[in-house]
Structures are given as structure tokens and as C-alpha cells.
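Give me the fold.
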Amino acid sequence: IAVVLAAVATGLGAALAPAPVRAAMPALILVTATTYEVLPDEGRVAVTVRIAATNRLRDTVTKRYYYEEGVLAVLPEASNFRLAAESGSPSVAVTSRDESGVYLRLRFGSRLAAGETRDFTLTFDLIDPGGPPDRPLRISPSLVRFQAWAHASTDTPGSSVEVRVPGGYRVEVGRGPLAGPTTDPDGWHVYASGALEAPLLFVADVTADRAGGYVDGRRSSTVGDATVILVLRAWPDDPDWRARVGDLFVRALTVLGDEIEAPWPFAGALTVEETLVRGNGGFAGTFDPAAALVQVGHAAGTGVILHEAAHGWFNGRLVADRWIAEAFASYYAERAAAVLELEIESPELAEAPMAAALPLNAWAAAGTASASQDQYGYAASVALAREIAALVGEEVLRETWVAAAAGVPAYPPAPAAPAAGGPASETGAAPPDWRALLDLLEERAGPGAGGALERLWRRWVIRPDDAILLDARAGAREA
């Protein structure tokens, strides 16, 4: 994308244009070394482009060839341009700007004669414009995100890129490539491309965040008869995240409690922490029930936030299988969004890669499944949850979650009579897996729903090896 367009050489003598150049490189070549210095406290990246401009033409007895200017395309967010050289009075001006780049006219300040090489230094800034949390250019003390381009004339090898990030940041580089980091005497982390064979094909996606330094805030929400304390841990320079995510959790937990009816399972505070999503396989939100910790991406959408709030119930404490937890976290996120009159994006099978389709019992744990398997798993599981809800109804679902939370087994014995002094009902069952969930649902929906539920399980859930268990279950229930 970043391409240098050579200005037409001006000839003195009988001809006004240079003779054709047969070499692959253009007559005016520019080889550059571009340095991106990240300045988070100033909200900008300072960019320095050292340019070696060479006029490859050769004078003849009757003609002299020289260049007075060239045109350079740089990143679309670039501003504050300056061009300098050891001699002369070079200058730079913006000729046009659009979403693909800023086009600059580089005036050399004096003629670049045939066969001559001259050095110039172009500087500009990438300044954080503010705005949406997922903006492509974000330069702040907590989070850095930008693209780095290489610059050169067409078909000219040899240009390079260097990125310098202050110490204390965790850096991730996509595409590129950039090697590193090395650490300079001042503590900067330095990433370098080396000489590039094809500079105009180079682009690096640089993301960095600084560990620690959270600012905590406390909120509370009401879930049934319980008061839930929320600890919101946000980056110091991102109060918008703390307000947006905190407001939504407070409202959503109350609605979810009414929809699910199972009691809130955590006695202590729930911590909701801002995080950076790393890599294409990263999750915009995660829930750790053992630590009562939710991590929500800095740019997570409303649907993700509601999904993670629903994981307050749908985690390993309530259900045993991943697909059950994800299915109903997504389903109740949709229910909460409807009550709160919010628009969210839900996983849809039409958008899932069907080549990755698998029985939901074969969906591996988070972090071990492939990205395409996860995409299919999320879409298929919520599709199944919708079908289950349509079949058994909301009240049966609520009764099922209440029973699961209480440890009521799928096949409880008849309650003892109060006079006998026995317990009113049996409890202590483990969180239901795919088998016990089917039993719990059928127990409450009635035998009329059993066949339809089993067909859903055979269509969506079971692996070939699981079929024998489902066959045995049917025979045992009939007996």
C-alpha cells in the first residue's frame, strides 16, 4: 500500500523526458529506514523515516536529468509532517488524504542530479484520535495499538522497520515479521525487520499493554434476595470501560437472576477485570469460577458482557460440560438483552464454518479447540439451547437450574413422610453432564417431551461412542 511514486525527471536540452530505463527499479529510487517510537504518555507514536533518494539516470553529452520532488504515501492517521536534510530547504506538503493513506509531495529543495544520492529525514506522528474502544489506533499508558508500514519506491529492496516500545509493556506483533525484542541501554524494547526484500508488502500489527496498575471501583447489584458486590478493575486511563461494563453488569445480574431463578452461587465479591484480547484465538471474555473473576476485553461488545454475566451461573459449579455452560450463557444473554431492550450479536450457525462441525460432546475445553471449532461450538450450542427452551418452556428450564444448583439427582427417591423424620428430598448430586441434564429436563417436562429431547441429543450432542449409552438409557427407562 505504501508506495513511492517517482516524479517525472525534468531534462535540460533537446528532450524534455528521460530515456526509458530498462531496469526493474524506477529511475528515482528511495530506500528508507523507518523507526516507530511509542510514546504512551503523550498519546502518540513518533515516526522517523530516513530516506536515501537516488537518481539512477545518467547524463549524456546533450542532456542532464534531475529530480526536484517525489510523492510518498504514509499511514492514513499520520500528521505533523516535516522534511529535513543536511543542506538545502526541503519541504513536505499533503496532496490528498483518504482511508488508504496520506499522500505527500516531498520537495527536495534543490535538484537531485543524475547519479546522485541524497539523504532526507521525514518525521510525522500517529496521534490517538480517541473514540470507540476498538479503534485501530490507540496510544495510551495502558494500551498501545497501531500499524507499522515500510516505505520504498516500487520494486526496490533494502528498506527496514524498527519499533521501539518503552520497558514494562507486553508486546505482541502480528504479520510483519519483526524480530526481537532486544533492550537498549535506556530500557526500550526494540523490534526490527532487517533489510526487506519487498518493503511494499510489509505491514506489522503492534499491540502492547502494561501489566498491573488497575484502578478498582465497587458496585452492587441485587439478585433475588442476595446483594452481589462487584469489584471493577479497569485500566487507569479507561474510565469509560469501568462505567460501561459496570452499568451493564449491575442491570444484567438482576434480570438474569429473575430469568434463571437458581440462587447466586458466590458468597464473596465478583471481580470484573479489564483485559487485552491477544491473538486471533483470544476470547473477548473469560470466567474463572474458582477465583470469582471475570475478564472482559477492553472493546468487548454488549453481547459478550451479558454472556460473561450469565456465566456467573453457567459454569462448572452448576453444569459439568462446556457446551451446556456456553449454550445457556448465550441463551440467557439473549433473554437479558430482550428485557433490557439492547441489541446484541449472537453466534449464528449461518456464519459458522460447517467444515468444523462436530458433536457438542466432542467440543474441547477452552484454549484447546481450534478457532473454527470454537466458532461452530458457540453457534451450535446456543441453537440447541433455543430448541430446548422452545420444547420444554421457560418454567421447566428454571426448575431444572434450581434442582441442579441444589444437587437434586435426576432420579430422586420418593420424599419421606415428615412423620418418619427423614429428609424432605435427596440432594448431593454432582453438576449435571449431558446425561443428567437430559434426565433432569425430561423429569420436569414430562414423558411426552422425552422423545423430542432425545432426538435433539442425537442430532446435536452425542459422539458415536455415546450412542450406546443413550440406547441403554432408553431401555432402562422403559423397563
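The chain has eight helices and 21 strands.
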